[in-house]
Amino acid sequence: MSTEVYLVRHGETMFNQLNKVQGWADSPLTVKGIDDLKVTAHNLSQVHFDKMYSSDLKRAIDTVHLIADANEVSNIGKIKKFPAFREVFFGTFEGDDIDQTWEKVSLAGGMDPSTDVNEIINTLGIYRFREATKKADPRHLAENSAELDDRMTRAIEQLTEEARGLGRVLIVSHGDFIKTLGIKYWKQSDGLHDIPFPENGSVSRGILHDNGKFEIIDYNVKNQDLLDM
To answer: How confident is the model at residue 185 (pLDDT cuts 50, 70, 90)?
Structure first.
């Protein structure tokens, strides 16, 4: 039996609004973030889920509870937290200005200074981009490609085991983590270059197969389009 997975990005946070790097660092949902999530929650309110999960960061936990509370056709019960579905870790850059961080990463990757992360990724490729981020980090704590790929694999394995026998589940995660899953598992990605960053409150839909194979079939779906999924 395959399990349908709805991957939701949390709502807008204070760090999103202030243009700060936000990986394992956490900041609260904004009023706009909550209002936008109410739209997502309404559009998912008639979708039956056997279980809901989230990463262990508060912005994801708050998001999943808002969605669960609005759902009219599911009996969710306890919501389990999966640390493996945390956002990408940016090490020393956590909480720093995003544009200044990308300039440093660009230089570490041998490029002219650029604050356009899409340009950096498409020039270096996603794997070299992660290495450049770790290199630019003064303490070299930021996750590189191998570390992040290991964590993504562990996340999918844990979810496969947890959701075995269930028809449909929802898990709230984070923008860069979902995007990296998309680069690896979305059929429209070539596995190397950048894809659109998922919007706050958007849904990406995947299929978990019993053999552990995972594929994303819808990516970054938002607002009224959720009703057509």
So the answer is: very high
What is the three-class DSSP state of 196? coil
Q: What is the pLDDT of residue 197?
A: 95
pTM of the predicted model, to two decimals? 0.95
Contact call for residues 21 and 184 (beta carbons, < 8 A): no
Domain 3-89+143-228 coded CATH 3.40.390.10: no
Whole-angstrom distance, CA of residue 207 vs CA of residue 214 = 6
Q: What is the pLDDT of residue 76?
A: 94
- Number of residues that make up the chain: 229
What would the two tokens of residue 216 be?
A: 């994303």
Is the CB of residue 86 less than 8 Å from the CB of residue 22?
no
- Mind giving me the DSSP string for 78-128? SPEE-GGGSPPP-GGGTTSBHHHHHHHHHHHTTSPP---HHHHHHHH-HHH
158 phi, psi to nearest 5 deg: -65, -40
CB neighbour burial string for 193-215, b if at least 16 within 10 angstroms, e if fewer: ebbebbbbbbbbbbebeeeeebe
State the residue for tokens 């200074």: 113
What are the extents of the domains in the chain?
Answer: 3-89+143-228, 92-142
| CA-based radius of gyration for the chain | 17
Q: Tell me the mean pLDDT in the region 81-90.
A: 98
* Residues facing 169 on adjacent strands: 5, 51
| Residue 25 amino acid letter | A
Closest CA to 19 of 118, 99, 91: 99
